[in-house]
User: Fold this.
Amino acid sequence: MRALRLPITVITTALALSGCMSTSGPVAVGPQGSLDSIAYGQTYAQAPVADASGGGAISAMRSAFASSPRGYVALAAPAAYAAPSRPSRYDSAYHLDAGDRLRVVVYGQEGLTNTYAIDAAGAITMPLIGSVPARGRTPAGLAAEITARLRNGYIREPSVAVEIEAYRPFFILGEVAAPGQYPYVPNMTVESAVAIAGGFSPRAKRDSVTLTHTDGSGSGRFVVPLGTPIGPGDTVFVNERWF
Assistant:
């Protein structure tokens, strides 16, 4: 009897082993390197292998998308966003005058760093040093003057920067819809000034626009075409036609 049990046990064990070997089970697959993981330092869920329970490849793909992180989309070229362009500034030759508003930065001195408007007398007034003449100076020249005054008994090694925060206004008169004073915007022309003032009136002489301009060399009055650039403080006069 014992002799019969031994072959039966051996046969049973062999059948069990063969059954285990033929049964497919889940295989643990480690995350593999990909372009995403190399470029961004992160990996995404691997698509599960379709099992024998049915569903096939389509079921596996649906499971892969369902298991991926929310918000993950196909990698595309990044959109390029241009930085907001700031209005172009006048170069260092620009001469300051009454109505210009300046940003004066004294590095390391928060009590002195502030916005200052040039008054009708052509000066700004700062703590410690009082009134500083600004009319006719360039921003760099004004910064040098402030530096010299602060160094004279107040700050050992002052560092000063002056930037134009807002230019003095321009004026437009004559045959336009709304004559008056308007804020100046860099790169303005006579035509854009007329547009800001509501356009020409019905009696405007459009080919005869007079521009009064003042700079460091003095003041002048000129008859100019519509495309002529204007500067801060300029006066545009649109003449009246007689027929």
Q: What stands out?
A: Strands lie at 101-106, 114-117, 123-126, 130-133, 160-166, 170-174, 180-182, 204-215, 218-224, 235-240. The first strand starts at residue 101 and ends at 106. The two ends are 137 Å apart (CA to CA). Residues 101-166 form a domain with the wza like fold fold (CATH 3.30.1950.10).
